Amino acid sequence: MRFDIDTRFLLDCFKEIVETPSPVGYYPLLNPVLEKYAAMFGQTVTYDNKSTAYITLEGEDNSKTVLVGAHADTIGLIVRKVDADGMIRVRQLGGVNYGSLEGETVTVHTRSGRTYTGLFACQSHSVHVFDDARTLSRDENTMIIILDEKVSSKQDVYDLGIRHGDFVSIEPRCQFTENGYVKSRFIDDKAAIACCFAMLKYLCENNLKPKYRTVLAFPYGEEIGFGGTYVPAGVSEYVAIDIGLIGPDYDGDEYKVSICAKDNASPYDYDLTTRLVNYAEKAGCDYAVDIFYRYGTDGTAALRAGNNLRAAAFGMAVYCSHGMERTHVNGLANTVNLLLAYTLDI
Questions:
Q1: Sign of CA dihedral 46, 52, 57, 58
Q2: Domains of the chain and any CATH numbers
Q3: Which of 43, 61, 235, 323 is the most exposed place for a label (fewest CB within 10 A)?
């Protein structure tokens, strides 16, 4: 059976979530948004000591507990020093592709709550000025933040309240086209969170319960490898909802849900992955099964941490991962359909 997904809600939810900054380790702004969406469907959010957000759905059969994880963190930056001329240098949070960020607007979030925008640029920023403007490597040693403030010294920047260790978020530039394409940074993994809430909306409106007790988890450390390392007691399955990849070795595309059979570390659980394939068939999903290189999920992190569980992964495929990403609303809808099929155990 095919589920009737509210794609307008799905896209609107994604837009709000993706436009709420949450670079690795920075949770103060997004957690209240997650609480708001949970409350829409009569649910509450709890937290662990890593500020991972959880929504627990009681099942028809609570003898088994499964977890669906969609990581809340995105790649980002953190202030490491201020140059004598007031330019800010950063370190990366997660696998930043600096070439894709050149010329982008960024926001510095101070610990006092003030925010300042700036231009993320190469230090050889102009072809009219620098001989190496086209050839200089774009990396942590050559990229700078030029604040949108009148500053000309280190002290000028400090006087704004900016300090080393302040988090820096990147403008997502979320766009929807009339024919269904979704273009935005951080589809990885904000779209997966939106898919979880679209699933929750369907369950609520159709007065349905999951087959088993289901924990929705939204951790903040996936981009640096530890998001799924803590798993609540009793969880026997960890299904990570994360992006699929598009490339020469893969069958997935923007319109399908990609089931990941193996990542860069290991294959996912044979039985659970086989069940996902069967769920996709029964739910009428357009899907692909692929193995991904230079890729991992919180499911793998949970296994590496020694948790006694099965793990699997699936999600919408994107172009240009860790850059200005693109997918299609059909890929999101197929992801929600597979998520519902798994949760309801159809």
A1: negative
A2: 7-74+186-344 (3.40.630.10), 76-170 (2.40.30.40)
A3: 61
